[in-house]
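Anyone up for a design puzzle?
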C-alpha cells in the first residue's frame, strides 16, 4: 500500500515538473536560454515551494558498465521537497532530472526531510532511456523484492548553502522487471548542483 502511494506521489511530482517544463519551452523560440532558465526556475518555485531548479552542476549515474551525466547548464535537474497533505508527516525529498532532448530521465527520493551529513534510505527511484536515442532503450526502477534489506541510500553533504543547491552521493538497487527473478543492479551516483 505504501509503495503504491509513493508511486502515485512520484508520478504526480514528475508530471507536474514536466508540465512546467513543457509550458516554459513553448516560448523558447522567443527567449534566450538565460531568460528561459530563469522563467522555468520561477515557475517551478511558484508551483511547488521548496523545490529548486539547478542553474549549473551535474548529476551522474553509473549502472553496469556505463555512466550517464545530466548537465544543469543544458538539462533540467531539480531538487524536490514534497509534503503529502493527505497524510500528516508524510514527506519526501529527492532529485529529478531530464535531459534537453527528453530521451533520458532519472529520479531518486527518500522519505523524510533533507539532512546534511546523514544517510537517508531510498524510497523510490527510476531511470529511463528512450529507445530512439539508444537501442535498445531501457527502464530501471527500485527493486522491492521480499527479503531484500537494502534498497540504497542518499547522502547529502551540503544543502542550500551559499551557491550550492545540493551536493552528495547515492546508491540504489535497480531492477529491469517486477518479477522476483529479475536481475538487480547497483546504481551509484553523485550530484553537485548549484543555484547559480
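Challenge accepted. My sequence:
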Amino acid at each position: 500500500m505504501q509503495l503504491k502511494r509513493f508511486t502515485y506521489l512520484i508520478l504526480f511530482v514528475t508530471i507536474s515538473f514536466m508540465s512546467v517544463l513543457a509550458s516554459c519551452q513553448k516560448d523558447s523560440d522567443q527567449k534566450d536560454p538565460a531568460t528561459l532558465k530563469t522563467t522555468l526556475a520561477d515557475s517551478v518555485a511558484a508551483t511547488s515551494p521548496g523545490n529548486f531548479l539547478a542553474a549549473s552542476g551535474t548529476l551522474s549515474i553509473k549502472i553496469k558498465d556505463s555512466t550517464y551525466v545530466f548537465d544543469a547548464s543544458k538539462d533540467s535537474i531539480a531538487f524536490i521537497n514534497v509534503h503529502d497533505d493527505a497524510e500528516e508527516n508524510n514527506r519526501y525529498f529527492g532529485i529529478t532530472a531530464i535531459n534537453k532532448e527528453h530521451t533520458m530521465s532519472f529520479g531518486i527520493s527518500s522519505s523524510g526531510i533533507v539532512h546534511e551529513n546523514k544517510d537517508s534510505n531510498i524510497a523510490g527511484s527510476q531511470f529511463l532511456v528512450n529507445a530512439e536515442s539508444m537501442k535498445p532503450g531501457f527502464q530501471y526502477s527500485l527493486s522491492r523484492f521480499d527479503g531484500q534489506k537494502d534498497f540504497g541510500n542518499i547522502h547529502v553533504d551540503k544543502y542550500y548553502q551559499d551557491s550550492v543547491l545540493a551536493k552528495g552521493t547515492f546508491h540504489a538497487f535497480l531492477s529491469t522487471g517486477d518479477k522476483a527473478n529479475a536481475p538487480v543492479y547497483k546504481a551509484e551516483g553523485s550530484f553537485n548542483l548549484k543555484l547559480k
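A detail worth pointing out: The first strand starts at residue 52 and ends at 53.
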